[in-house]
User: Which sequence fits this backbone?
């Protein structure tokens, strides 16, 4: 989850998010260095005692400040394109889950083997137990087996929503009448939070997404329990 | 010809513009080449509606349709859906 005053991205919980994190570090370092350099130049020019009344030109420095930025841009573009193509690769999911957006909750359907479906409402602030996170917890979490490729089919039953979990590097719009697909692998067990990312009415900020990655035996126990409760 | 001669003469007195031509020209060339590739090789595009109306139905499971394959071994993919 995000912390108060957090500036950077959340810790990655999937290999793709790790790649995005490292690329973000790379790009941010480049633009920080460029901005610091520009700031230095500005301060130097503003505080300089020398003046010149005539037009100056220099072919050499023009070549340098054309070629160097072009090289820097290529150094940013190549990792970016690599990640772009990585995101679109064909996966072989072990499990397919349908995430349906409603006003104002999510419902999850696990229909690969049995007919398992449940709704996931936000835990209201007055019902939180100590240690729980405000506006992020849900009564039923979307449980998945860890280290297994998962396919999530996202759609909506009424208006536009968006299913997003930042630490898994996943965001997909939930459009009524349309089925969108997103795939990921949870590389470590844990609880990962996200929030609805498309304005959908009064309680748009109060329909969070909670994904819990557990070892496979725990996932099987959980799904048997959920089927019994239904 | 006169445009090229004029530009060539101007370049001789301002050689700093040569890298600019290289990068802008290179970028434009790459964009046009990618658009051409998309127009001709993308299975979503049908040029001949009589003979090849729906090329997206003729894709092999091992066919790589994207420009780069970073981590994908396309030869390992199997066909696991019924014929159209």
Assistant:
């Amino acid at each position: 989850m995000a912390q108060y005053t957090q500036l950077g991205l959340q810790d990655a919980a999937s290999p793709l998010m790790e790649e995005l994190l490292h690329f973000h570090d790379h790009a941010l370092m480049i633009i920080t260095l460029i901005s610091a350099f520009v700031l230095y130049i500005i301060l130097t020019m503003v505080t300089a005692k020398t003046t010149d009344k005539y037009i100056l030109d220099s072919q050499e420095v023009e070549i340098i400040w054309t070629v160097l930025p072009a090289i820097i841009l290529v150094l940013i573009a190549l990792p970016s394109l690599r990640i772009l193509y990585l995101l679109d690769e064909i996966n072989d999911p072990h499990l397919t889950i349908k995430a349906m957006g409603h006003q104002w909750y999510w419902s999850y359907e696990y229909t690969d083997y049995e007919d398992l479906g449940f709704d996931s409402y936000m835990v209201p602030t007055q019902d939180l137990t100590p240690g729980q996170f405000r506006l992020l917890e849900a009564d039923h979490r979307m449980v998945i087996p860890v280290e297994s490729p998962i396919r999530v089919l996202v759609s909506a039953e009424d208006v536009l929503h968006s299913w997003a979990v930042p630490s898994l590097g996943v965001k997909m719009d939930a459009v009524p009448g349309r089925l969108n697909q997103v795939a990921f692998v949870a590389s470590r067990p844990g609880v990962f939070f996200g929030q609805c990312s498309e304005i959908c009415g009064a309680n748009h900020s109060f329909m969070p997404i909670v994904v819990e990655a557990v070892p496979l035996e725990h996932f099987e126990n959980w799904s048997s329990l959920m089927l019994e409760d239904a | 010809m006169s445009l090229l001669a004029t530009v060539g003469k101007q370049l001789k007195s301002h050689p700093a513009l040569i890298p600019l031509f290289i990068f802008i020209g290179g970028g434009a060339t790459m964009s046009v080449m990618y658009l051409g590739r998309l127009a001709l090789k993308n299975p979503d595009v049908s040029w001949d509606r009589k003979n090849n109306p729906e090329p997206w139905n003729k894709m092999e499971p091992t066919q790589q349709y994207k420009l780069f394959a970073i981590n994908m071994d396309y030869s390992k993919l199997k066909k696991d859906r019924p014929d159209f």
